[in-house]
Amino acid sequence: MHSSIPQHLARILVALALPIPALAAQSAPLTLAEALKLAESRSTQLAAQRAAAEASASMATTAGELPDPKLIVGIENAPVEGPDRWSLTADGMTMRRIGVMQDFVLGEKRDLMATRAQAEARREAALVTMQATEIRKEVAMAWFERLYAERSLALVDALLAESDLQITGTTAQLAAGRMGAADPVMARGQRAALADRRLEIERMVRRAEARLARWLGEDAKRAPSGEPDITTLPTSAAKLTTDVENHPQLAMFAPMTAAAEAEAKLAAIATKPDYSVELSYGARGAAYTNMVSLMVRMDLPVFSGSRQEPAALAKLKQAEQARAQAEDARRRYESEVRAALADYDIARQRVERNEKDIVPLAEERAKATLAAYEGGRADLSAVLEARRMLLEARLMALNVRAEAARAWAGLAYLVDERNPK
What we know:
A hairpin with a 7-residue loop joins β3 and β4. This protein has one domain: Outer membrane efflux proteins (OEP) (Up-down Bundle), CATH 1.20.1600. 62% of the residues lie in helices and 8% in strands. α2 packs across α4 and α8 packs antiparallel against α9. It has 421 residues and is an alpha+beta fold. The radius of gyration is 38 Å and the shape is elongated.
């Protein structure tokens, strides 16, 4: 049987019996930690939200203050007819006035306006943290996708090499009359399918690079390296399912509800009138004495039934809406987290099963088939098929690991461990 196999082909088979080496290290690799750091520092979305949070915090410092006073300057009762028309000094009623006016908003209202502004500032700050965690999750997902796609690409290339050997072996055995004509055709068909599979994985590599480019720019072209430990979450499962109101994805709902409740309370006391005080000095002609005026103005909500009360009811319903939305978001989030934890737990078990059982068994079969071939008890096609199945098992194990990595990334950045609440 061995006499029909070229010596160089036998040497290739021996080499293929060894485990597939890891991808060669490339210059300037991109670790996940560096990718996350670069994404946060370059994110225009995050910069915009930080600016919004800073603006909202600045506005909150003055929300409970009284409005600025107003300057009053003018002329009163200037004649427009008769011999004294347009004179500012001839008529005793004509005055040149200067004064100030101050609006006084009730302290209860100002306290509620401050509460509303502070709640809005907290909401904007919570959005900064939420967007930061979302960016880290998206970058991690894209980074893992590219890492495992490139590793899959290397395995598919090895499968293609196996297919080439299988085509050569089956063609040689067909020429020697040891197999039917269908076997070489089947081998070429398998290779064509693998070539198409390679194109699909190459598409995944390019798409992952394009996704990373949004956050990393030119650094997205660097090869990913340094896979983190995906068998352990940086945050305990218990922490992911408790105190969820303070998780970044839900932290904005508490201040949103507080702002809506403050709005409802403001509308409820809208019938309590504000007032303003005006003090002015009136200068008349030399023949007359100057005057001082003190005026008080006050709102009169005499149509509260058709104005303030409907507005108060609307704000009250909006507060109820905010509370209901917060509760719905909490329930949905808890459900999603528990489902994600279940996916992650199963994915870890599958990774362990593939790495401890499925791949080692495929390796043993490949070694046994090669030993049988060397002992004259198996033909070349059996060896190549065993090798192909080994590579398929390794590719499947890599896909399972990629699935576990995606599940890990989806949970690892739900809570910001750098700034724990």
